[in-house]
């Protein structure tokens, strides 16, 4: 999360209503710092980034819910939060489309990064998997984000 700067370097101060959600955003920022500074011993290379992806998802979902579900923040505040990097605008854009309501990260739908030019295994509905098969995404650690689940 970008630091909030005061003074002449910051072009625009946060809009009204930011004070109401600032504490929650600071909690997400502290969780992110803890995840970045956590020990990586014993973890695989790709597992080190999972907590960061999960915290980014939670923070983006929080802002999405405030604006679209609860209608608790204004359009100007929502746009300011997206512009200043408090939420992932691409992920939120996907959540608004049918079939992507539970999407965990945008890397899971990119087909160019996979061996067979398909989406991630976490996008497969659980009822189409073999019984007892555990699925965990290599990109973000998700255990299933299909909207059909």
From TrEMBL:
One record GO biological process: mRNA splicing, via spliceosome
Subcellular location(s) per record: Nucleus
InterPro entries: BUD31, BUD31/G10-rel_CS
Keyword flag Plastid: no
GO cellular component: spliceosomal complex
Magnesium keyword on record: no
Highest taxon of the lineage: Eukaryota
Keywords: Nucleus
Pfam families given in the database record: BUD31 (PF01125)
Chief location: nucleus
UniProt cross-references to PROSITE patterns, sorted A to Z: G10_1
Family: Belongs to the BUD31 (G10) family.
Designated name of the protein: Cell cycle control protein cwf14
